[in-house]
Design brief:
Layout (H helix, E strand, L loop, with lengths): L2 E4 L25 E5 L6 H17 L2 E6 L3 H10 L4 E5 H8 L14 E17 L14 E4 L6 H12 L4 E4 L3 H9 L5 E5 L5 H9 L2 E4 L3 H10 L3 E5 L11 E13 L4 H12 L2 H7 L21 H10 L13
Length: 328
């Protein structure tokens, strides 16, 4: 089940309403739009609500953010046209396009197109200070680890990473806010987050109790980057009150996605609203510091929506091959 959170008045989530709009809006623009995000307490939900509001104001089309299971489900919903927009990471996007999305095994989800770069998702581990867990090696055998919502980027990749590093664990799933509460109540030993930083659930935890934000060793980082589609990343010291120095991590890029059949002119204006005012985006969520035009080339797996490709080629000097643009 999904929960819709409105960021502007929306009467419908129909993609193609065919209504006429004033101020130059074309007749084939949707009457409203919905963005697939993630769980409440996670970065996707806060970030998606933020850019949804900016787009609504810029285009005059009302929009809302919807709580979902995260990247895998968003690929499925946007591909099918059940949602106009969503957010995903490169790993789940590649698996979905290849037909390996667990929601619909064998279905190649090519109806979801790249729209704009969002930010890198660091993989980070949090435990209560009282647990004595200060490193990955300290995680005891059989530890109960919360990996986020089922099918999320975290749930898809972090268990595999822990297995690669020799950690023996019991897998738990849930929304980030719920898992944070379970950690605080002693029902979990560790939470393995894959989310843009600062993760709201971690920020809330460190206000209420003492936590350890556990970094990868250089050897662990090298092992993970060799085995998975991630890159080296440092979580800045000023991200959390708990950190006194940058924390070594790995990360995966996130992209906003659009149903490939949305009107080109509409998607062009959506991208323009988000990419033309980074200061405003950062005001909605700090993770948007990386929501910059020059990172267009971080998409290596999805075809671009024609409206998005047009914006990046005209405004960011993007050299996007025709065969990487939907319909090209």
């Amino acid at each position: 089940m999904t929960i819709k959170i409105l960021v502007a008045l929306a009467a419908s989530t129909t993609l193609f309403a065919g209504a006429a709009f004033a101020d130059g809006h074309t007749a084939d623009w949707p009457e409203s739009f919905t963005i697939g995000t993630g769980s409440q307490g996670g970065t996707y939900f806060g970030y998606g609500s933020g850019w949804g509001g900016i787009v609504s104001e810029a285009t005059g089309v009302s929009g809302g953010a919807e709580v979902t299971g995260g990247p895998m489900q968003n690929m499925s919903l946007v591909h099918a046209g059940d949602l106009a927009f969503g957010m995903t990471t490169m790993g789940p996007a590649a698996e979905s396009i290849a037909g390996n999305n667990p929601i619909a095994p064998g279905l190649q989800m090519t109806g979801a197109c790249a729209m704009f770069p969002m930010y890198q998702t660091p993989f980070s581990i949090t435990a209560l200070s009282s647990s004595g867990i200060e490193s990955i090696a300290d995680i005891p055998a059989g530890a109960k680890i919360g990996f986020g919502p089922a099918g999320s980027t975290s749930d898809t990749y972090f268990p595999r990473m822990m297995e690669e590093l020799g950690v023996d664990f019991e897998r738990r799933n849930g929304g980030w806010s719920d898992l944070g509460g379970q950690l605080q109540d002693g029902l979990l030993d560790v939470i393995a987050f894959a989310a843009g930083v600062p993760v709201p659930a971690v920020s809330q935890l460190e206000v209420q109790t003492d936590v350890n934000i556990i970094e990868f060793t250089e050897e662990e980082q090298a092992k993970i980057t060799a085995a998975f589609p991630v890159a080296q990343f440092d979580i800045a010291a000023d991200t959390y009150q708990t950190l006194e120095a940058p924390a070594r991590s790995v990360s995966m890029w996130n992209f906003a996605i659009a149903n490939c059949d949305l009107p080109e002119s509409f998607v062009f204006e959506v991208v323009n609203a988000v990419m033309s005012d980074n200061e405003r985006m950062v005001a909605t969520h700090k993770a948007a510091r990386s929501t910059l035009p020059e990172f267009w080339d971080r998409n290596t797996v999805m075809k671009w929506h024609p409206g998005a490709a047009k914006w990046f080629m005209e405004n960011a000097g993007a050299d996007i091959p025709a065969d990487m643009i939907h319909g090209g």
